[in-house]
Structure formats: structure tokens, C-alpha cells
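ok new one. same drill as before - C-alpha cells go in, u give me an amino acid for every spot. 325 of them this time. try not to just spam alanines like last time pls lmao
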């Protein structure tokens, strides 16, 4: 809870921090410019700060330890101006490959930082994690790069949920909206995974189920129409007709649920949702969303999650107010 409260505290200071680092882009001191650009990346791209490692560890880097070879500058790419192409191994040796359009001054500074350096040289040669963290602590007690990550992940989830959720949707569609909001966070935090080996097989099974259910829907709809005609012309059993109508609705609902599942599974194949859910998203946002839209908690949280976030569940369920991160 303290971790998420710290991220909420950052919310009250973020505007000032952002205007300060934007001003620092044009500082006379190179170290201040480098710190400002690094902070811009940590804030906008949720990059990790990056720590020094032992020789025998994999060559993974974070923002402060980026080398010249890890970024390529494009004055124009795919119709966008001032594009920075990142390509490096992040935590757990997961590749971070991303094209980002940045502010013109950031682009100019990066050109300057690269000037006269060889590929293996540090991009931010006047900066390291200790210097950055010392500066962050001066802005707010306990502020680190990870707090930015938690703040940006949680605020993204909250905004996406507001944008994507429709209270008139059925349960399957609401869960899809939640997963899409969570996916936006996972993409921001670069929580990628390889496509599971079983993906194609399980998608095939799901498509077969959908096909069978579609046929069942068509059959029951046909029966309903025939019965409706008979009732109209001969005055048949209306109770039986009502029963058949309910069977059509139930079959349609089951088909919709399967189709929604397939969309979710396909969109999810290269994204790992668990990491952000467990480490970066204020659980009170999810619990409050479930409460507001009548979604059972087990649809978004496993038993492990529910045990870990018991404090958040109890806190939200005991209040009538809506939670704002």
C-alpha cells in the first residue's frame, strides 16, 4: 500500500517535475541536459534506470547505462519527425525495440550526446543511477525510477478503463475491456513474451467450438422462427415459444462469450499481463472497477492476487466512494 501511496504522491508533483526537465533540455551544463533527457525517457517510456552489473552477467541495460549503439536517430521515419529507435536487452534479457517520436530538443540533445563517440561508449557519460536517484530524492522523498513506472502504469490503467468500459456490455465484453486496458500498460512497460508453443493449437480448438456454436445458434433460431409462424397462424403454445426465445438468447450469449475469448487470446499472445498486475498497478483501481461494473473479482485476479491484495479488497469494499488513483 505504501508503494502505491508513494506513486499517488508523485501525481501531485508530476507537472512541476515535467516542466523542470523540459527547461533543463537547454541547460548550459551537459550533465543537467543528460539527466533531463534520461528522466524524460523514464517518465514517457517507463524505462528502468539500469544498474551497473558484474562482468559475468548478461549485457542488459537500462536508461542510464544505454550506449551509443542502442539508439538510432531518424530525422523522419514512417511519416513522423524526430524518431528515436531503441534496440537493447532490458531486464531478464528481454529485447526492447521501439520507435518513438520525441520532442525536437530531445532529438537535438541525443545528436549532441552521440557526437564524437564510438558505438560502445555510454550515451549518458555524465550520468549514472546513483546520481539520478540522488536527484529524484531531492524532488520528492523516496522517489526512484520505479515510482515513475508504478505511477505511469496505474494512471494508464485508470484512464484506459474509463475509456474502454461500457456499463451496458455483457460480462465477457467487460473483461475484454479490462484486459485491453491491462495490455496498454504491459506494452508501456515492455512486458513481452514469446508466442506460447500451444497458441495455434488452442486457437484452433477455440475456433472449432465457435463454429459448432454458430451452427447451434442458426438451428435454434430457425426452430424459433418456425414456431413463431405456427403460433401466429394457429395460435400455438406461447409458453413454449417464450422458452425457445430464451434458448436463442442463451445460445447467442454463449457464442458471444467464445468469440470474445478468441479476440482476447489472439491480442494477448505476445504480451505478459501478470507482471504489471502483480507489481505496477494499484490494485484498488481494479477492485473499484469490478465493484462499479459488477464484475466478479476472480475474473481479473487469481487466488494469489486476491491473497496479496486483501488489504485493497477490504479497503474498497468497505467504502461507498469511487476510488481515484
Amino acid at each position: 500500500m505504501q508503494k502505491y501511496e508513494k506513486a499517488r504522491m508523485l501525481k501531485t508533483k508530476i507537472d512541476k517535475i515535467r516542466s523542470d526537465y523540459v527547461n533543463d533540455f537547454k541547460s548550459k551544463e551537459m550533465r543537467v541536459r543528460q539527466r533531463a533527457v534520461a528522466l524524460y525517457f523514464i517518465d514517457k517510456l517507463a524505462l528502468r534506470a539500469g544498474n551497473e552489473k558484474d562482468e559475468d552477467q548478461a549485457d542488459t541495460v537500462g536508461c542510464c547505462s544505454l550506449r551509443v549503439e542502442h539508439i538510432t536517430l531518424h530525422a523522419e521515419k514512417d511519416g513522423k519527425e524526430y524518431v528515436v529507435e531503441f534496440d537493447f536487452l532490458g531486464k531478464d534479457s528481454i529485447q526492447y525495440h521501439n520507435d518513438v517520436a520525441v520532442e525536437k530538443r530531445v532529438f537535438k540533445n541525443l545528436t549532441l550526446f552521440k557526437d564524437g563517440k564510438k558505438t560502445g561508449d555510454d550515451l549518458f557519460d555524465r550520468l549514472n543511477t546513483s546520481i539520478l536517484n540522488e536527484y529524484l530524492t531531492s524532488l520528492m522523498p523516496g522517489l526512484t525510477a520505479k515510482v515513475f513506472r508504478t505511477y505511469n502504469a496505474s494512471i494508464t490503467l485508470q484512464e484506459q478503463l474509463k475509456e474502454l468500459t461500457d456499463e451496458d456490455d455483457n460480462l465477457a465484453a467487460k473483461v475484454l475491456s479490462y484486459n485491453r486496458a491491462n495490455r496498454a500498460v504491459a506494452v508501456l512497460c515492455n512486458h513481452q513474451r514469446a508466442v506460447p508453443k500451444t497458441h495455434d493449437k488452442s486457437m484452433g480448438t477455440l475456433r472449432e467450438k465457435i463454429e459448432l456454436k454458430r451452427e447451434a445458434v442458426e438451428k435454434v433460431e430457425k426452430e424459433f422462427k418456425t414456431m413463431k409462424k405456427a403460433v401466429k397462424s394457429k395460435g400455438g403454445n406461447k409458453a413454449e415459444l417464450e422458452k425457445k426465445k430464451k434458448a436463442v438468447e442463451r445460445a447467442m450469449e454463449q457464442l458471444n462469450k467464445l468469440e470474445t475469448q478468441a479476440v482476447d487470446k489472439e491480442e494477448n499472445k505476445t504480451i505478459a499481463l501478470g507482471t504489471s498486475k502483480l507489481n505496477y498497478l494499484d490494485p484498488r483501481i481494479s477492485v473499484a472497477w469490478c465493484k462499479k461494473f459488477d464484475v466478479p473479482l476472480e475474473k481479473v485476479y487469481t487466488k494469489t492476487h486476491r491473497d496479496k491484495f486483501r488489504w485493497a479488497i477490504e479497503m474498497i469494499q468497505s467504502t461507498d466512494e469511487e476510488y481515484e488513483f
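The first helix runs from residue 2 to 24. and btw The chain has a mean pLDDT of 90.
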